From TrEMBL, chain A:
UniProt cross-references to InterPro entries, sorted A to Z: AAA+_ATPase (IPR003593), ABC_transporter-like_ATP-bd (IPR003439), ABC_transporter-like_CS (IPR017871), ABC_transpr_PhnC (IPR012693), MetN_ABC_transporter-like (IPR050086), P-loop_NTPase (IPR027417)
Protein name: Phosphonate ABC transporter ATP-binding protein
Gene3D superfamilies: P-loop containing nucleotide triphosphate hydrolases
UniProt domain ABC transporter: residue ranges: 2-246
Keywords per UniProt: ATP-binding, Cell membrane, Hydrolase, Membrane, Nucleotide-binding, Translocase, Transport
GO molecular function terms attached to this record: ABC-type phosphonate transporter activity; ATP binding; ATP hydrolysis activity
Organism: Vreelandella populi
Highest taxon above the source species: Bacteria
Gene: phnC
Enzyme class: hydrolase
UniProtKB/TrEMBL annotation, chain B:
Record-level Gene Ontology MF annotations: ABC-type phosphonate transporter activity
Gene: phnE
Coiled-coil region list: none
Protein name (Swiss-Prot/TrEMBL): Phosphonate ABC transporter, permease protein PhnE
Keywords of the record: Cell membrane, Membrane, Transmembrane, Transmembrane helix, Transport
Length: 265, 269
């Protein structure tokens, strides 16, 4: 179970990006986080695995407090948090297999990592997962020779190689074409139930969020303003989350009147 | 404004306006003045300049035909020259890479290391190989060791600076992904940074090896080993036919070096 309590993130002296966020995710559930650019979705996800340092608050994963971990403890905790990225973040010049095995870097020692002598169990797990998502035939290809959808599958398998207790996906489909992004969403959904793994997905595409996840969390200006099942996510919720975002400073600009009419404020 | 509009209407177009033209003439004038000042100040003894064609033909006559005597010595010295360049380049790799790592903005552990790294790179580069060689000949005595160290100390700045820039240009995203897996710093470097800078590394090292071959041909002039030692010796004893042979041999060596490095570059990249 992942539990976030009163999470605050402030960059320098600016206005807080996250203003006291609370979120509880039970095991085996897929949660999508929606919100306009700059709402704090990405920051929230990165606070969980501490790629971004939270300013204050508490994040616990299965009872372990993550916010104050340092050094080796932090690395040990990160092994249990898989992450899938918008830009795939693969090691382009390395092979698909090397990319996948990189998910084990937190478990193997430096010598094994550099000489690529991974334990046989890891290699077997890699093949099983690659077969599951349909990229096993590319094991010895360079990662940059694959198509977008295939590359994201490599990213997913790399995250799963960590044997994670939670999977974070930061706009995993935003760089993909509509059809491929549906496939990736379906994959994340089925993997979550197969591995009984909580999955948090930042996503822009509201209809995909409604189709493939069982819970939607809406963020706006660092605050949670919606939390419920897709059926409850109606026009009002959508307006509350995205409304008026296109013209945030229209009070000072001379935007046409008909555009201002959409602003709920 | 009206004038401007009029010009547009008449399709008159000039690249520079009056002020810009004035500035351009002023820059030209200042440049010419500096050149004239420099030529007057360095005190050239003009009769020697007018005598140069005679001297060239005289020297040419004394050098021709190049002497084949001592060819064995020359070849040995050339091989020694290449050895100096190769060993020095190899040694430099181990010294320059840590410096590159701490001198790159995105990998340096802290500000102090960043400035230390940059200080090492700048001091290495601002001293010419020959000056380094003079220094090391004074410390270790004449010989190959002084030559190797001189080239190493000059090359650290070159390889370190270019590798540092290569590190600064890497894509940050794989680094982030590797950190997210719980990998230690060393593993992040091995997986996310090293593969990205590998092509630059080979290109830079091959280029520096090529430069080092050329630099090591002159080291002998200050007693730091290589072909330059016998070149200096031949000049001192007015053995002009031998000097000619050595100069031809150096040109040949540089050409071979050029060919080998361009071949390597094609193979590696």
């Amino acid at each position: 179970m992942l539990e976030i309590k009163n999470l605050v993130k402030r960059y320098g002296r600016n206005k807080a990006v996250l203003e006291g966020l609370d979120l509880k995710v039970e095991d085996n559930s897929v949660v999508s986080i929606v919100g306009a650019s700059g709402a704090g979705k990405s920051t929230m996800l990165r606070c969980i695995n501490r790629l971004v340092e939270p300013t204050s608050g508490s994040i616990t994963l299965n009872g372990t407090e993550l916010v104050h971990l340092k050094g080796a403890d932090l690395r040990r905790a990160r092994r249990k948090i898989g992450m899938v990225f918008q830009g795939f973040n693969l090691l382009d010049r390395l092979t698909v297999m090397e990319n996948v095995l990189a998910g084990r870097l937190g478990y193997v020692n430096l010598y094994q990592a550099i000489t690529r002598r991974y334990p046989q169990a890891d290699i077997e797990r890699a093949f099983v997962l690659m077969e599951r998502v349909g990229i096993a035939q590319y094991a010895n290809k360079r990662a940059d020779e694959l198509s977008g959808g295939e590359r994201q599958r490599v990213g997913v398998v790399r995250a799963l190689m960590q044997e994670p207790e939670v999977l974070l996906a930061d706009e995993p489909t935003a760089s993909l074409d509509p059809r491929t992004s549906e496939q990736i969403m379906m994959l994340l959904q089925s993997l979550a139930s197969e591995l009984s793994l909580p999955v948090l997905i930042n996503i822009h595409n509201v209809s995909q969020a409604k189709t493939y996840t069982e819970r939607i969390v809406g963020l706006r200006h660092g605050k949670m303003i919606f939390d419920g099942v897709p059926a409850d996510f109606n026009k009002d919720a959508l307006d509350a989350i995205y409304g008026g975002i296109e013209a945030p400073d229209d009070a000072t600009s001379n935007a046409p009147v008909e555009e201002r009419a959409h602003d709920p404020a | 404004m009206v004038d401007h509009a009029q010009k547009l209407a008449d399709h008159v177009w000039q690249r520079y306006n009056a002020k810009e033209r004035l500035i351009r003439y002023a820059v030209l004038l200042v440049t010419l003045m500096v050149v004239v000042w420099a030529v007057r100040d360095i005190d050239i003894f003009w009769p020697w300049v007018w005598d140069a064609p005679n001297q060239i033909s005289g020297l040419g006559a004394r050098m021709w035909p190049p002497s084949a005597a001592g060819l064995g010595n020359i070849v040995n010295a050339l091989i020694e020259t290449v050895h100096i360049a190769t060993l020095a380049t190899f040694l430099t790799i181990f010294l320059a890479l840590p410096v590159a790592y701490i001198a790159a903005q995105n990998t340096t552990p802290n500000r102090a290391c960043l400035w230390l790294g940059r200080f090492i790179l700048v001091s290495s580069r601002s001293v010419n190989t020959i000056i380094w060689a003079l220094l090391f000949v004074a410390i270790f005595g004449p010989g190959v060791l002084a030559g190797i160290l001189a080239i190493v100390f000059r090359s650290i700045g070159f390889i370190g600076k270019l590798m540092g820039e290569a590190i600064e240009e890497i894509d940050r995203r794989p680094v982030e992904a590797m950190e997210a897996t719980g990998a230690s710093k060393a593993k992040v470097i091995a997986y996310a940074i090293v593969p990205q800078v590998m092509p630059a590394f080979f290109a830079i090292v091959i280029l520096r090896w090529d430069i080092n071959i050329r630099e090591s041909t002159v080291l002998g002039l200050v007693g730091a080993g290589g072909i330059g030692v016998i070149l200096q010796g031949s000049i001192d004893t007015f053995a002009w036919p031998t000097v000619a042979t050595i100069l031809l041999a150096i040109i040949l060596l540089v050409l071979i070096g050029e060919a080998v490095t361009s071949l390597l570059r094609r193979k590696v990249l």
